[in-house]
């Protein structure tokens, strides 16, 4: 292996091209050698300026001799096959959320990694790398607030594509709260309920936007999630913990620049997830590259962050959430018993 590990990035739309930029310009110890995308034009737009090869077939890209590790940023429905191919090739992989789109397939991925005996899968739950989330997790785990009783989460996007229906809002957006609730509380989620309220006029017919989601943790701690993806305002992500002896909130002040002019005071709210979590994405990638380098050199684990178990747990929570949306009932997550490692950082390890 060279000093730099050689990376294939699969799927170079919004997130994948951000990761390519991060790996190329802001990450030490890695170089993108291969880019893959179903759109040849998009692949070349990203690959050509950095001198990477375009390989259209994901399996070929993963197996390539000039690829040591893989970043997957294709749509969630493509993740299962691509992650499994990385496992079989023995190559570390940073897979964007969700690990897979169903609990059963995510569990199968976790079991296969466990069977192979080496942790190679990191899942892109980047909030764990955000300074505010990390500080809140440490504050809760350190016990200074007493036992956590409730989390109140707000997750608002300014706009989403037309295809974002109520179920997709759970699988693609609330999946972040599924992971951050486990990370912050340090326990699993037992059941999910969803209340569909009055939709915004911007929601397509039949789509409940916003919704209120309730997670019940194993201890009985409650997690409320307001998911609202067509606010027309900005990207707003907040979390408050209410504990026995105090409370704490993150994400309150997302003003990048505060302006005073003409007798008024105000600022700009982060417009999108890249603006809000840019540092967290970069830190996630750097820590994964460092772990992948170490794992490749030692032949051991290659993960520093949420792993396949965390990906499975989030998929199980989201599957229960989708069933709760459809049936209007409280649904238990019914998670499998854990048999291997597959998770790493803070909270639920
Ligand atoms: N962690 C985070 O905050 C975020 C994570 N994501 C995740 O990143 C992934 C990609 O999302 P976006 O970049 O927003 O989507 P996108 O639609 O902008 O990009 C996806 C790209 O993958 C390509 N593609 C589709 N199927 C493919 C396949 N089978 N093989 C190779 N390329 C394929 C498409 O042509 C496109 O260029 C998703 O899993 C999504 O959930 C997306 C946004 C934020
Ligand atoms: O992962 C993300 C998107 O895929 C999702 O659609 C958004 O709702 C989230 O805020 C963003 O972080």
From TrEMBL:
Q: Does the keyword DNA-binding apply?
A: no
**EC code(s) of this entry:** 1.1.1.18
Q: Does the keyword Iron-sulfur apply?
A: no
What superkingdom heads the lineage? Answer: Bacteria
Q: Which reaction does it catalyse?
A: myo-inositol + NAD(+) = scyllo-inosose + NADH + H(+)
Can you tell me which family this protein belongs to? Belongs to the Gfo/Idh/MocA family.
Function field: Involved in the oxidation of myo-inositol (MI) to 2-keto-myo-inositol (2KMI or 2-inosose).
Q: How does it assemble?
A: Homotetramer.
Q: What is this protein called?
A: Inositol 2-dehydrogenase
């Amino acid at each position: 292996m060279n000093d730099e590990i050689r990376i294939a990035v699969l799927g170079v739309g919004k997130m994948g091209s951000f990761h390519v930029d991060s790996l190329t310009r802001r990450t030490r110890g890695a170089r993108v050698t291969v880019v893959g995308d179903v759109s040849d034009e998009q692949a070349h737009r990203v690959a050509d300026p950095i001198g990477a090869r375009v390989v259209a077939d994901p399996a070929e890209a993963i197996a390539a001799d000039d690829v040591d590790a893989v970043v997957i940023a294709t749509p969630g429905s493509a993740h299962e096959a691509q992650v499994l191919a990385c496992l079989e090739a023995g190559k570390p992989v940073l897979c964007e959320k969700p690990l897979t789109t169903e609990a059963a397939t995510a569990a199968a991925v976790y079991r296969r990694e466990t069977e192979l005996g080496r942790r190679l899968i990191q899942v892109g739950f980047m909030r764990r790398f955000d300074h505010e989330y990390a500080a809140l997790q440490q504050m809760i785990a350190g016990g200074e607030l007493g036992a956590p009783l409730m989390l109140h989460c707000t997750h608002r996007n300014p706009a989403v594509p037309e295809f974002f229906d109520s179920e997709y809002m759970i699988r693609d957006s609330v999946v972040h709260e599924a992971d951050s609730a486990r990370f912050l509380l340090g326990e699993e989620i037992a059941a999910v309920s969803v209340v569909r309220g009055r939709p915004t006029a911007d929601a397509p017919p039949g789509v409940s936007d916003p919704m209120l989601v309730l997670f019940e943790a194993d201890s009985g701690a409650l997690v409320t999630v307001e998911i609202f993806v067509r606010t027309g305002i900005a990207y707003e992500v907040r979390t408050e913990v209410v504990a026995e002896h105090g409370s704490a909130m993150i994400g309150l002040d997302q003003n990048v620049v505060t302006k005073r002019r003409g007798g008024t005071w105000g600022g700009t709210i982060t417009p999108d997830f890249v603006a809000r979590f840019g540092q967290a994405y970069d830190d996630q990638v750097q820590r994964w590259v460092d772990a992948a380098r170490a794992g490749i050199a030692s032949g051991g684990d290659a993960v520093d962050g949420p792993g396949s178990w965390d990906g499975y747990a989030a998929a199980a929570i989201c599957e229960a959430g989708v069933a709760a949306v459809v049936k209007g009932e409280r649904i238990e997550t019914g998670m499998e018993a854990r048999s291997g490692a597959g998770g790493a950082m803070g909270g639920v390890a």
